[in-house]
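ok so for the tutorial part 2 we go from a plain amino acid sequence to predicted structure tokens. step 1 is just haveing the sequence, like this:
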Amino acid sequence: MPSSLLLEVLFIFLFSGVMQCSAAVDLLFLIDGSHSVGKGSFERSKHFAITVCDALDINPERVRVGAMQFSSTPRLEFPLDALSSQQEVKAKIKRMVFKGGRTETGLALKYLLRQGFPGGRNASVPQILVVVTDGQSQGHLALPAKQLKERGVTIFAVGVRFPRWEELHTLASEPRERHVLTAEQVEDATNGLLSALSASALCTAASPDCEVQPHPCEHKTLETVRELVGSARCWRGSRGSKAVLAAVCPFSSWKRVYRSHHSTCYRTTCPGACDSQPCQNGGTCIPEGLDKYHCLCPPAFRGEANCAPKLSLECRIDVLFLLASSAGTTPEGFLRAKAFVKRFVQVSLSEDSRTRVGVAWYSGELAVAVPVGEYRDVPALLESLDSLPFRGGATLTGSALRQAVEQGFGSAARTGQDRPRRVLVLLTESPSQDEVASPARHARAQELLLLGVGTEAVRAELEEITGSPKHVLVYTGPRDLFHRIPELQGKLCGQPRPGCQARSLDLLFLLDASISVGPENFAQMQSFVRSLTLQFDVNPDVTQVGLVVYGGRVRTAFGLDTHLTRAAVLLATSQAPYLGGVGSAGTALLHVYDKVMTVQRGARPGVPKAVVLLTGGMGAEDAAVPVQKLRNNGVSVLVVGVGPVLREALRRLAGPQDSLIHVASYADLRYHQDELLAWICAEARRPVSLCKPSPCLHEGTCILRNGSYRCECRDGWQGPHCGKRSLRGDAPKARGSHPEPAEGQQPYPSQQPPRRPGRPGH
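step 2 — the prediction. this is what the tokens look like for a chain of 762 residues:
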């Protein structure tokens, strides 16, 4: 889904679904169209007005909307009684043309004092005036603003560009912190305006859970200040005297600086259905009202709840889930365990499945809710799960294990070759209060496979119960728990599925093709990469694979989005060239950072990204900074160092996560495939940021919002990813003014201050 469409959906939800203004009210937009505002900010002002209209129930009996533009003189764009629908008003605002001229805010206010609200209902309904300006008026406005407010008009002052906040405060109604906003942050300003109207019962929130809350905010402005730079020798004399004196004179310069003024803003916040980011594998969460949502899933995951992979079990096994329901586990932990088992059943069992499931729960005593295989169908099993109550009490895991072996498998416990493999899956977050080693040995002696699922707090105990760290699944939080389902399925069927069980991943191999490696060893690296690629589902919706080689130069053999199938990746890997020459791992990693692992070159927002560097270690001395740049940008880097001695330069690249594998020789690479796959799959489960690497072009700023992102473009660029040049720039600056410097820019190199510019618009 295009990001611009997603933002529009979220936007309409936020202001049309959460806040709605349906009272009888006359609302007039008074929009600054002077040269000091400029065409660019004028368009932003229009966008703000259109956004506010999204939350207004516009019709002749309820909300009426009109618009005026002012500069040297006020101009009525359309009166309050001219348009009767939201679509008509938004279309009319969109067609407003920039006027230009001086900033005569006072004249526009006096016009309203004389004429009233054009097409309005003569103060029989509340009157709201929304003034959108940079606050640089050429005339006096305090008195007409005061007179309008005395007539009962509520005035909102909305700043654009770098406004004069003191003038906006003069315009705005009390309390000023609720009536002064900035249009540079459209969504925030719209929320602030609607929140203020809700305080007077003109707007209402759709949910009682929504609250208007204060929070700290900043108002920025741009000021020209004089700064003492130093002193210099100068000569001074007096008229009528031949005496000339040497003196030290101050040396000053002028510069424009950004200033921030701390304030308090009031905004309406509501709990969102997409706040927990429930959609997996690159799916996009679309809210439907306040508490519902649906996921837009990539093709490989369509039709599945939350875009989760449906990986049905193909082996013949009997599985008993044993859930801790003690006080140490807590009601929340017990609910998480039940939800995990329910989700496992939903994605793993089908009508023709050869897997049978049972459920038991325990605290001081064991209770078998469903013996293995003794349920009518999957819906009946899920209904039994829902009815399990939390019990509390002591955590006697050892006793529960002994009883589960005897009671949990019910009539499914057959003997001989006819008996399927039996597995007991223990889910707990609380350490046991009785001895577990002996009951666990007894269970394993009965040919039960014991698997443990729990938090870090019980890892050691689960390893003791199951007899192996490989039989323990540790999760860090509720979302991570559900991501363990594919891993559990692999352990249940005795052979892990290849790769990362259809997890989305952008994977890049970076191969040392320098003279220190040699063509024969390079060929062995190619063979190793081909073998690894066989373990992944290569397609644009699941795993993308790229390859870069480096020696005397760096070359992209193929990018992440070049080949769409595994067969094409295998062929292209075989054709990757051996380069020779002296290699630089640092240069190669910078090439990956700038030209490969970017959204513009095929990397996908919201998908984990991993780089595997295979090298003999020569030429890695300059790689520490580039590898950290990649990691800071959300890209995981694993270093595979080959050679009898691990070079110190490679140790420095491992980073705090110790992402380093040492291989004695190139011929031994194949023995480390499982270790490398485990690292890659662990990285594929990492939480990721949609803004790393940034999808915004031309130095645009990526801003996260409600499970998605938007790009805030620099001047001269526009579009969802700042990829289009603006067709119309801002209006020419006032004569004598200076271009706005970047923050921290050096002052104007002049001993004297620049000539004071004329008022904007003159």
